[in-house]
């Protein structure tokens, strides 16, 4: 048994007691669970297009991301976007809203922000890679139960109102993205779409319809769809390759 | 097809065309071709040499070039002649030029008169008996015949069509890709013929084209991407007004 912390000073007398160094805990589980987020517009759609076309688009997208920061966000997070507007007084216009839909692949990727301003619902569709966008700030990082929140148009307006001067809510990097399990209450029917039908597969609405209507809606269910093998599109390997490519591109 | 933005913030849609192994195959003189100018035979994409007869392969053997899937003729003036066997690259075109693109349109098969010629058809109800998508009358009473060229149902598509006056926004010299404004006839990954525009408005738009063509000898070093002046390049910061 030898203690390396035993000090011997030049005098020969024992030196001041130095406590042993604190042990460094390397939590291997934590390290492997680092969150990887690949923006959905990088994943190419299934088709007969030459992969070279997607490669050229990705190069342009990575180039734009190097100059301009596009934060990680999901459908249900609250964003503030400043765009260049030639007709505004300060030549910029700022809009705050909840992201209800992310569409498009490649350079034409878009996201729709919704907010209710002075009792008027407003939705603006922005292009992620458009050069007129000057800043995208993430005010609240959140996920919801659905991928598409179009039903907020038929929900009570309180669920779509967000303060325009909201302060950004801090969010730690390594924690998981919080899922807001909010069930939204709707305005009375008629709605713009029949959200109770199983084709929309919405989990975020508190349906207050009678049981009979809910059962009738299940008539349009297509239970064979989830077993259809031709509709399967396994993107795991493609995502790995693209993740590596994007990371290398951004590090330069 | 891809979006491209100009420096003023406007968006345009752009088609990517790849120049894949193009070689000049043969020179046809003015007397041989019988036209006003001499012609050059140019071949596209490389394919296997095994499925064609020997006589067809003669042209490729003389030029010293693998067999090409498509061979087209270009009318060329005498001072722009190129030796057979030279490869052609995307840098032959420059951004800011205007081009005409020819290709075979997507074949739709045997189609009725409403889809093929845009006829209005007949109403769906109010007593129509078995007549909703038919052509109706073919000619007048006095003519007592049907004129040649009458629009009738038939095979639609799969014919050569040209889109005229398309602007070239950007050229990638590394992968030989031309970014051409707007849409182009044909399906994805089809073979396409790109030619300098024949329209009178764009006759004098070429300022300094590579003449007769861009030879990749290593004499002039071109950057990997050539952009038009108005194109917003992603290395610049966002547009402000």
What does this structure look like?
The complex is a heterodimer of chains A (about 250) and B (about 240). Chain A contains 4 helices and 7 strands, in the order ααβββββββαα. With about 250 residues, chain A is of the alpha+beta class. The longest helix of chain A has 17 residues, at about 50-65. The mean pLDDT of chain A is about 90. Chain B is mainly β. Chain B folds into 2 domains: about 1-110 and about 165-225, Double Stranded RNA Binding Domain; about 110-155, no CATH class. Chain B contains 3 helices and 13 strands, in the order βββαβαββββαβββββ. Chain B starts with a strand and ends in a 14-residue tail after the last strand. The mean pLDDT of chain B is about 90.
Structure characteristics:
heterodimer, A: 252 residues, alpha+beta, SH3 type barrels, five-stranded antiparallel sheet, two-stranded parallel sheet, 7 strands, B: 241 residues, mainly beta, Double Stranded RNA Binding Domain, four-stranded antiparallel sheet, 13 strands, 8% helix, 30% strand, globular, mitochondrion (chain A), Large ribosomal subunit protein bL19m (chain A), ribosomal protein (chain A), Ribosomal_bL19 (chain A), structural constituent of ribosome (chain A)
Averaged pLDDT of chain B, please? Answer: 90
The name of the CATH topology of the largest domain in chain B is Double Stranded RNA Binding Domain
Span from first to last CA of chain A? 50 Å
Category by helix and strand content of chain A: alpha+beta
Largest interface (CB within 8 Å) is between: A-B, 27 and 21 residues
N- and C-termini, Cα separation of chain B: 28 Å
Strand line-up in the sheet with most strands of chain A: 4-3-2-1-5
Q: What does the main sheet of chain A amount to?
A: 5 strands, antiparallel
- Biggest sheet record of chain B: 7 strands, antiparallel
Task: Lay out the secondary structure.
The complex is a heterodimer of chains A (252) and B (241).
Chain A: H1 28-32, H2 51-67, E1 78-84, E2 92-103, E3 110-117, E4 120-127, E5 133-140, E6 143-144, E7 179-180, H3 211-217, H4 236-251
Parallel strand pairs in A: 6-7
Antiparallel strand pairs in A: 1-2, 1-5, 2-3, 3-4
Chain B: E1 2-5, E2 11-18, E3 22-28, H1 30-33, E4 38-43, H2 54-63, E5 71-76, E6 87-88, E7 98-104, E8 109-111, H3 113-117, E9 154-156, E10 160-172, E11 177-181, E12 192-196, E13 225-227
Antiparallel strand pairs in B: 1-2, 2-11, 3-4, 3-6, 4-5, 7-10, 7-12, 8-9, 10-11, 10-13
């Amino acid at each position: 048994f030898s203690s390396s912390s035993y000090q011997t000073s030049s005098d020969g007398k024992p030196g001041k007691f130095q406590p042993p160094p604190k042990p460094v805990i390397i939590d291997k589980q934590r390290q492997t669970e680092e969150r990887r987020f690949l923006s959905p517009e990088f994943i190419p759609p299934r088709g007969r297009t030459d992969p070279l076309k997607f490669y050229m688009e990705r190069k342009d997208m990575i180039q734009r991301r190097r100059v301009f920061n596009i934060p990680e966000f999901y459908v249900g997070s609250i964003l503030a976007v400043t765009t260049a507007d030639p007709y505004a007084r300060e030549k910029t216009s700022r809009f705050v809203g909840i992201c209800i839909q992310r569409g498009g692949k490649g350079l034409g990727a878009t996201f729709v922000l919704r907010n209710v301003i002075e009792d008027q619902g407003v939705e603006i569709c922005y292009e992620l890679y458009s050069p007129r966008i000057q800043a995208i700030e993430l005010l609240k990082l959140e996920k919801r139960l659905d991928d598409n929140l179009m039903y907020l148009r038929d929900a009570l307006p309180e669920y779509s109102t967000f303060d325009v001067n909201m302060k950004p809510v801090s969010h730690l990097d390594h924690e998981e993205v919080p899922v807001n399990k909010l069930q939204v209450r709707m305005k009375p029917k008629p709605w713009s779409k029949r959200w109770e039908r199983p084709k929309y597969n919405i989990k975020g609405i508190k349906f207050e319809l009678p049981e009979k209507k809910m059962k009738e809606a299940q008539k349009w269910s297509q239970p064979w769809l989830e077993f259809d093998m031709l509709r399967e599109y396994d993107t795991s390997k493609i995502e790995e390759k693209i993740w590596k490519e994007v990371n290398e591109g951004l590090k330069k | 097809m891809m979006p491209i933005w100009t420096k003023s913030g406007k968006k345009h849609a752009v088609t990517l065309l790849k120049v894949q192994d193009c070689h000049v195959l043969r020179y046809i003189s003015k007397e041989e071709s019988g036209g006003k100018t001499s012609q050059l035979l140019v071949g596209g994409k490389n394919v296997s040499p095994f499925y064609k007869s020997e006589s067809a392969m003669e042209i490729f053997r003389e030029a010293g070039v693998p067999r090409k899937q498509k061979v087209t003729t270009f009318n060329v003036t005498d001072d722009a002649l190129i030796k057979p066997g030279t490869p052609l690259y995307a840098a032959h075109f420059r951004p800011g030029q205007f081009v005409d693109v020819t290709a075979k349109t997507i074949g739709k098969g045997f189609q009725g008169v409403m889809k093929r010629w845009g006829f209005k058809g007949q109403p769906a109800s109010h007593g129509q008996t078995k007549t909703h998508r038919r052509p109706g009358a073919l000619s007048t009473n006095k003519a007592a015949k049907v004129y040649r060229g009458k629009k009738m149902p038939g095979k639609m598509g799969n014919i050569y069509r040209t889109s005229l006056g398309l602007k070239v926004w950007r050229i990638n010299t590394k992968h030989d890709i031309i970014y051409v404004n707007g849409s182009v006839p044909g399906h994805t990954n089809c073979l396409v013929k790109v030619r300098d525009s024949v329209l009178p408005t764009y006759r004098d738009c070429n300022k300094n084209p590579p003449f007769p063509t861009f030879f990749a000898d290593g004499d002039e070093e071109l950057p990997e991407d050539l952009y038009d002046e108005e194109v917003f390049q992603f290395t610049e910061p966002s547009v402000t007004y």
